[in-house]
Amino acid sequence: MKYGIFSGTVNDGTIDDVVNEARQAEKDGFASFWAPNIFGHDALTTLAIVGREVPRIELGTSVVPTYPRHPHAIAQQCHTVAAASGNRLTLGIGLSHKIVIESMLGMSYEKPVRHLKEYLSVLMPLSRNEPASFAGETYNVHGGISAKGSNGFGVVVAALGEQMLRVTAAMAEGTLTWCTGPATLSSHTIPTINRAAEEFGRPTPRVIAALPVCVTNDKAAAAERAAKVFAVYGTLPSYRAMLDKEGAAGPADIAITGSIAEVQDRVAALADIGVTDFAAVEFGATPDEIAETRAAIKGLL
Q1: Which ranges constitute the DSSP H helices of 31-187?
Q2: Residue 289: which CATH number?
Q3: Which UniProt keywords are listed (predicted)?
């Protein structure tokens, strides 16, 4: 299992903060650095800058919403990031949520499974530097991209439900999960996507699991903080469904907390259920917690 770090500064820090964060993750020996795309800096633009400053670590988005971005346009942007970063980009995409797409952006969120199929039908050939030729119900795209210096980019999908996991297995390279605990990964996510990949004659998918992590002497305080910091995710239907599968009241119940040994044991156990990459979302509150959380994950490298 490979280990990566989720950026904590893309949304509330400066570009320099993100560069410094990625530089430290690379220095610490992590395999990947993941930038969320919420309502702060644009993740792909930020990673293009990071890629020029930080030379080796894999760079990924976690995740870019699809509905507001045409697949040809995002492919062009990704090829530019790939060229700028020495071909280290993995594009993580997701549908976002109905409340964001419809209520905030005024777009339709109808037929999300069809949307993902059509989106990937355009995006995947473009990601391989091949022209897209697709005529569907919502996308009709015939064209390619030529961005010198880009060898292409990987694509993973924030797929949670069974239908989304099957589409992902058939068309993309893997999935990136959030708010999905180990029991659900083991009983639902991993067997579903792996069975589908085998059925479709596809390679074993990449499974990138992102979970909150904090080394602490006060589990109760960490749980209370996690409940506040990650509260919104427990209210969004797709994440709520995964938490319900886990039997979790909220995101705090799937946070990995405790001593260095406890945290390391719980993280390392994810490899045994088929997780290929772990992406740590660090949420230490004190200098000691921050330092010890990073040390615990580094200790697994």
Answers
A1: 43-53, 71-85, 98, 112-127, 162-171, 182-184
A2: 3.20.20.30
A3: Oxidoreductase
Domain span at residue 283?
A: 158-301
Q: How far apart are alpha carbons 77 and 57 in whole angstroms?
A: 19
From first CA to last CA, the distance across the chain in angstroms is: 9
Cβ atoms of 82 and 110 within 8 Å: the answer is no
Query: How many structural domains does the chain have?
Result: 2
The model's pTM is 0.96
Q: Tens-digit pLDDT profile for the chain (301 aa)? A: 999 999 999 999 999 999 999 999 999 999 999 999 999 999 999 999 999 999 999 999 999 999 999 999 999 999 999 999 999 999 999 999 888 899 988 999 999 999 999 999 999 999 999 999 999 999 999 999 999 999 999 999 999 999 999 999 999 999 999 999 999 999 999 999 999 999 999 999 999 999 999 999 999 999 999 999 999 999 999 999 999 999 999 999 999 999 999 999 999 999 999 999 999 999 999 999 999 999 999 999 9
Q: Which of 155, 175, 198 is the last residue of a domain?
A: 155
